[in-house]
Amino acid sequence: MNALFDLPMKRKRAVKRKAGSVWGYSGAHADRYSSKLPWKETFSFGDNSESCVANYFKTQLGEDFEEAGLVYEKYCEAMRKVSLVIMELLAISLGVDRSYYRELFEDGNSIMRCNSYPPCKQAGLTFGTGPHCDPNSLTILHQDQVGGLEIFADNKWRAITPRPDAFVVNIGDTFMALCNGRYKSCLHRAVVNEERVRRSLVYFVSPKEDKVLRPPQDLLGSTTRKYPDFKWSDLLEFTQIHYRADATTLQNFAQWLLSCRNDTTSKSLQSLDSSHHY
Ligand SMILES: C=C1C[C@]23C[C@H]1CC[C@H]2[C@]1(C)CCC[C@@](C)(C(=O)O)[C@H]1[C@@H]3C(=O)O
Ligand SMILES: O=C(O)CCC(=O)C(=O)O
Ligand SMILES: [Fe+2]
Questions:
Q1: Which CATH number do you get for residue 230?
Q2: 3-state DSSP call for residue 275?
Q3: Mean pLDDT, range 144-172, rounded to an integer
Q4: What pLDDT is stored for residue 263 in this prediction?
Q5: 5 occurs within a structural domain
Q6: 7 assigned to some structural domain
Q7: Owning domain of residue 257
Q8: Is 2 contained in some domain?
Q9: Is the pLDDT of residue 47 over 70?
Q10: CA nearest to 274, candidates 217, 229, 222, 226
Q11: What is the pLDDT of residues 190-229, one digit of tens each?
């Protein structure tokens, strides 16, 4: 990862993320946002059956990144496997058919991201990544020993102490919807510091874009649906074009989706009432 972020800016800009895509290099998301820019650089790429990670590295970054590409490909393979095991464990813990989530994610389009947070002279004035819930389903994160990840729990921000031998696994908005809110999406942020660069490696577990997502019937029983059916492509579009991910993305997404589906916006906003089934 060091070799990647240490490249001259010209080479990083050559693989910059294009509008409407989550793949490529981004410096502070400066192409997308005009205020509260995150103090970070990111490099992202997809992990799905059609794409070959090693080939992406070689063709985009050059021959000198071929070996790194093979390592990332192996890492993605391992993440895919572990994510499917976690899906089974989540199903068991929820008392539903243990293969329901595993099958949903087996042919998923997950996203892998390298984050680099440079030191900041006035670290208290910015964030590496501001407070947000991840819109995807599960996030499997590894951070270096510098520290900076914080989660919001029991009404306060808590630092997550880095451990080289551990991953942080967070529930994201899509999984929260898939279990009808039984598991909550984790609100988190990354702070920066004045001295040291910090790096993290993040695997955003996501289903195939066009699959219809809904909780299993055995979880719902006769309980009220909290979120409408949707596709990952809908939520991706929402967070790429219409809404900057924050603590309440899922709620706002549900309202937006209904307002697109219904004729009048006001009618749909009112209909996001807990007494409704979707
Ligand atoms: C679908 C995605 C949007 C983001 C990348 C993937 C999964 C997580 C999302 C993100 C990390 C959530 C916080 C805001 C964001 C803009 C970021 O800070 O990087 C998000 C991603 C993105 O659009 O780049
Ligand atoms: O770098 C971190 O620890 C957090 C990154 C993050 O939240 C993200 O990329 O979504
Ligand atoms: Fe995140």
A1: 2.60.120.330
A2: coil
A3: 97
A4: 52
A5: no
A6: no
A7: 13-275
A8: no
A9: yes
A10: 226
A11: 999 999 999 999 999 999 999 999 999 999 998 999 999 9
Nearest CA to ligand 2 atom 1: 200
The rounded Å distance from CA 222 to ligand 3 centre is 33
* 184 found inside a domain: yes
Cβ–ligand 2 distance for 190 under 6 Å, the answer yes
Dist. CA 95–CA 219, nearest whole Å: 7
> Could you list the active site residues?
198
The residue nearest atom 9 of ligand 1, judged by CA position, is 134
Which ipTM score applies to this complex? Answer: 0.96
Q: Which of 59-73, 129-143, 154-168 shows the lowest per-residue confidence on average (mean pLDDT)?
A: 59-73
- Determine the Cα–Cα distance for residues 180 and 200; give it in Å rounded to an integer: 30
Q: Which residue has the tokens 């910015």?
A: 126
Q: Is the CB of 136 under 6 A from ligand 2?
A: no
> By C-alpha distance, which of 195, 196, 234 is closest to 213?
234
Residue-level pLDDT at 20: 83
Q: How many domains does the chain have?
A: 1
At a CB cut-off of 8 Å and minimum separation 6, what does 201 contact?
Answer: 1, 75, 112, 113, 114, 115, 141, 142, 143
* 177-206 burial: b if 16+ Cβ within 10 Å, else e: bbbbebbebbbbbbbbbeeebbbbbbbbbb
pTM of the model: 0.93
Picking from 44-48, 174-178, 216-220, which range would have the lowest pLDDT averaged per residue? Answer: 44-48
The pair of structure tokens assigned to 260 is 């697109």
> How many other CB atoms are found less than 10 A from the CB of residue 271?
16
Q: Does residue 147 sit in helix, strand or coil?
A: coil
Report residue 103: phi and psi, to 5°.
-65, -35
Angle at which helices 53-61 and 66-94 pack, to 10 degrees?
140
